[in-house]
Amino acid sequence: PSVTVKRLCDVTGSERVVVIGTIFKHMELHPSILKEISEEHNLIPQPVTEEYTQEDDFLMLEDDLQRVVLCGSIDPQIHVTGVNIAVLGYTEESGKFFVEDYCYSYVDEPDILPSLSMDKYVLLISGFGLGKADGMFPLQLLIDLITGQVGDSQTQYKFSQLVRVIIAGNSIGKEDPDPFKSRFLTRKSKSATVDSIRMLDDFMSQLVTSVAVDIMPGEFDPANHLLPQQPLHPCMFPKSSKYSTFNVVTNPYDATIDGVRFLGTSGQNVKTISAYSKISDPLDTLQKTLDWAHIAPIAPDSLNSYPYKDEDPFILSQYPHVYFCGNASTMGYRFSGQFYNMAQIGSREAVLKFILRT
């Protein structure tokens, strides 16, 4: 049966209608600067936690004029603030809107995949973490595999079909603060990041001689913190930037390689959504962002991003063929029907183990 689409302010009584709006998730543990300031008034401070969701969280639907609390057949634990949604239901006597069913924005199917005359491969990797004390042997071994300097003839032939390497962020490791070190550099001192960037340039200069490389910025890389992150500056790579096969790209990353569209991030959106919901598996989180038609609906509420006024670059209007996130705790992939594939990328050691196993 047909139902009427109405705005929240026009809903009257227990009329069964469809309302379109944006979800706001009320969370007591949501970090708030006002609650931090309340410590000055001898109030109880917020507990330190990496997960901000709990059982008594609830959802509200808002439009340009008002909000209404949602109840019924909608789970607050698998939703986050910022999701655009259409809900079917009616208003209860308590004033809450009872949800019978709901749906998200429509996303177009991807373009038809081209027919290739030969096999071609794209390598996804993240989390080099240069600057850590665990040695660079795994990374050097990975580069030697890609460039064909190690491995048997079958392995070398397989890597000869590699057409692109996508580095999904966090090439530089997180620098732990030193309590005995000054906040400001003196004339004769330098940051550990400088040496890490020089080391990264050395590794990239080996890689770009044999394959095209796209390097994305990540959470710990020397780039702007707000999403979308702009490319790392080429001046940081004096050796690698001499090659046309070396490309510094944005985060999120969106490119078409031989007719196959790749879309992905360095993992900040997946990490934040997992912290504000009960969706713990990165692949499930990726699936949810596809369902929501938005890469990062939680931005800028809980994920730092540039405040766009007239357009949102994170909106999905068409499914990609390959959808990925970097810097996950483990490797994993999932085939979602005939339309798109999803992949979560671990650290360089996890990628190396995966390559050696396959």
TrEMBL record:
GO terms for biological process: DNA strand elongation involved in DNA replication. Residues 3-102 form the DNA polymerase delta subunit OB-fold domain. The keyword Protein transport does not apply. PANTHER family: DNA POLYMERASE DELTA SUBUNIT 2. Belongs to the DNA polymerase delta/II small subunit family. Signal peptide: none annotated. Residues 122-328 form the DNA polymerase alpha/delta/epsilon subunit B domain. The keyword tRNA processing does not apply. It comes from the Eukaryota. This is DNA polymerase delta subunit 2. Keywords: DNA replication. GO terms for cellular component: delta DNA polymerase complex. One of its GO terms (molecular function) is DNA binding.
